[in-house]
Amino acid sequence: MTAHFEHVLVTGAAGFIGYHLVDRLLTDGCRVTGIDNLNDYYDVRLKQDRLARLTRHRGFTFQHCDLADRAAMARRFAEGRFDAVVNLAAQAGVRYSLENPHAYVDANLVGFVNVLEGCRHHGVRHLVFASSSSVYGANTAMPFSVHHNVDHPVSLYAATKKANELMAHTYSHLYGLPCTGLRFFTVYGPWGRPDMALFLFTRAILDGAPIQVFNHGRMQRDFTYIDDIVEGVVRVLARVPTGDEEWDGDAPDPGISYAPYRIYNIGNNQPVALLDFIAEIEKALGRTAVKELRPMQAGDVPATYADIDDLARDVGFRPATPIGEGIRRFVDWYREYYGV
To answer: Of 19, 42, 157, 171, which one is the catalytic site residue?
Structure first.
């Protein structure tokens, strides 16, 4: 499905989604260059272990680079001659954006401009970039649709992701750069991020420590298994967008454009209550969690729920992994990786 892209650049290649995507692209026969700054937002050893597995493939090249380094990024693009780019590098996390806002400006805004400039000047045929379900912010109409307005973010992280969508659209308009944005909905699975709920809960339960359950458990998330996410990204990468002639400037639809630009939700389309999620972890571990019920945290939202109709129609996306099965696979990986 991606054979017509001989050389793909994946930023954030040592990250959770990046690692799994690179592995899939290499398996599909693509040559992949991965870049990552290997920052210490979470355990660098986990990132290095992901990379060690990728470097077993002959078609993979890793380059240590920070997206915010304009000169270094310009060299990467000039030397790489990439057919397509998947930008997954970002400063992640809603809560951390309250503590360190400048990290989000550097990685998610400055870094993304450098990616856009590299694509513009070096003939990249398709840029796929990570957005986030966080852009829906204060929206409450469910399920969240790409055709809804998303102008009320509730965290700086969300604001930077909305900014990425606007920046990419501008480059599509000005320079004809085909861009597709993907709003990821709570991705989970083996090799996941230690700051995410599944990782935190699993570690705490195994340690006999209490878990913090925010909004007193009245939360829902559209948890999406990593293999389903990767399948969707690969399908989107192969579908280079073109302008939509039906777009109307008098009644602009946020989900489409006259420019070669598209935005999609990529989620499971089946939100799970947080307490049910915890119950599945308890089942997989064979242990009971000690729950500390807490109020909602600043910048968080009570529920996410992805309308994936556009993605299903355009690339045949269909998530296939039940939550219990996905959690079991994560727990199996966690026990093996940490020897517990």
So the answer is: 157
